[in-house]
Amino acid sequence: MKVSLKYYTIKYLITILLLIIAVWAALFYAYILDEVYDNVDDGLKNRKIQIIKAVYLDENLLRNNEFGFNEFKINPISASEYKDKNSLYNKMYYMEYDDEEQPYRVLKTDFIDQFGKHQQLIIRTSTVEEDELVYDLTTALIVLYLLLVVSIVAVNGFLLHKAMQPFYLILDKLKKYQFGASSFNEPQNYSIKEFEELNIEINEMIERNELVFHQQKQFIENASHELQTPLAIVINKIDLSIQNGELDKKNLNFLNDVKNDLRRMAGLNKSLLMLSKIENNQFNKISNVNFNVLINDLVKSYEDFIEYKKIDLNVVEKEVFEAAFDPDLVNILLSNLLKNAVKYNNQNGIINIITEKERLIFQNTGSEIPLDKSQIFNRFYKQGSDQGSTGLGLSIIKTIIKQYPQWDVTYEFDDGMHYFILSKN
Description:
By secondary structure, this protein is of the alpha+beta class. Helix content is 54%, strand content 18%. It is built from eight helices and eleven strands. Helix 4 (249-279) packs parallel to helix 8. The longest helix is centred in the N-terminal third of the chain and has 53 residues, at 5-57. The protein is rod-shaped, with a radius of gyration of 47 Å. The mean pLDDT is 85.
């Protein structure tokens, strides 16, 4: 799944922060816990010294064999059990007053009394307060941990949003840019040096592209004029020669063949120029177009052609097919679809044009063999040996549709009918 640069950065920042702060919190917790028990242990060691001194002064303390008010007990041990070291550990003791076990820190040590006998001294101290301190500390640490992460993420998100604002402005400007649109170079001042340089470089790149675009556009217009005019003149001169009636049958047929080839060349030139103009985005006026109205107008203009082939044409308007489209491109698109349906139809054939809300269907009789749907929209592809075709009509339709990413044109063959389906998503 694609995410924005800001959320991509924040995602990794959160992951890294959670790890770093978690490690820091664990170390801090361990250090505080160690300090707490270290203080308790120091207290127990001090009491040990005081109790042993008291035993030397008062031998009755040697009979204190159970924990009492002073929280220590002394029991005799054998010489083999004697160990000259302190043992510190945690232990739970049952407390009658609370009727439950309570945590204690215990110091166990051995000593030799004033009579030379080996004794074991066990001192305990309740750690309820210390445990409560640790619990409070842990709670505070978790709250601090969450607040710290949320604060850092929020501050970082705010700073990223503010810092990336120029980048999104430049990106938005590029999305809106179209070749030939002159409202692109609006002056912008950016406080961040890198974005300022990026904006300057993009503006310079656009200026270079605009210059190339206008040069290419000018070339196409000049080529159209310089090629079409001589072809039209030559065709007219051939027509005049044919009409003189001075030519024998052989020369007449020869000139007719030359005229047909020239007309095909003129048509080919027009189609190629049209493709170039479409691909160079020279048709970029977008407005809301009612396709139903244009189809009815177009059918009227093709009446002679349709009557000549005695075609039964039906326009079935199930819904109004409307879309934001360049009006000139719509005329080219519908003309090519209708011309294709008439030109490759049979004498006394059928054409059905069906308008739906999201689809426009051109349905016609013609060849009994389905066309190759994988190639019919390719340039110069001709199925069969039609010498009058340039092989560019359907390619122009496909090129127009490519200008609108949400649109598609497909071909189907069913029950002897050819279907060209124009759909918008």
